[in-house]
Fold this sequence. Notes:
By secondary structure, the protein is an alpha/beta fold. It is built from 11 helices and 11 strands.
Amino acid sequence: MLRRFLTLGCAALLSAIGLPAVAQTADCPRGALDARYCDRDGDMVADAPANPRDLVDPPVLVFAYTPVEDPAVYRRVWQGFMDHLARETGKRVQFFAVQSNAAQIEAMRAGRLHVAGFNTGSNPLAVNCAGFVPFAMMASREGAFGYEMEIIVPASSDAQRIEDLRGRTIAFTAETSNSGFKAPSALLQQQFNMVAGRDFRPAFSGRHDNSILGVANRDYDGAAIANSVMVRMIARNVIRADQVRSIYRSQTFPTTGYGLAHNLRPELAERIRAAFFSFNWEGSELLAEFGKSEPPQQQFIPITYRQHWEVVRQIDSALNVSYACR
Length: 326
């Protein structure tokens, strides 16, 4: 049953982004990438187009942060960085308040989104279906990064172990989310033989903050969430720490991957990359917000999709997730 939810969710997403493919002038190596992209250097992300006519140099750069929480909060949080990006590139920068992972991927695939942070679970779809090229991730000053998937319950719940949630309602966020769906799906199926519809009632909240609020208010018996989101919500007094309790914590996963559309002119792409690593975090809204995470997020560090998303691709493989675009 859980696999059916995943299949339906991916099918809906891929249907939403099923736009006409850009014709390739010649066949090329591409691995799991969509037919419109090439990967001649084997780094698992789309190369820049070989034909100069296919490169774009937009007058306005559109930036979007993953819809993990309320977009209105993050427009203000990202404003200082967007001002810096504008100075470094000589472009106007516009914030795009996306409401879903599917909308964010669709926007980049259609050429309406140029720079973005995609959440952990949607990075593979963004890379393979939308030509997203991630190159940065937030980390502490010492280089520590990542978050854990936790399964939380109301503090007053009698559930002490995952098995105690049998017959109850467990909230997930969206089918593309690593910590909000894919990692807990693999965990429930493989380690606890718990199947949606048979052993528990699945619910989909749409976002991590909705799931966390739902558990805090006892709307859900449990929820699979990214603990970095929960830490920031507690720091902002959105919920109290004593309203929820964790009964499971996973290994560490990479957090949001930041990158750009593969078809930007190389000179512009290089200025965008440089802007991430030259941004001064001291006194910024980014530091005020993401410094509350554990570990604190205090700088951008370089990453590669091949290396840092290997564990996520392994989870997708275990769940038979396909990156094919239709």
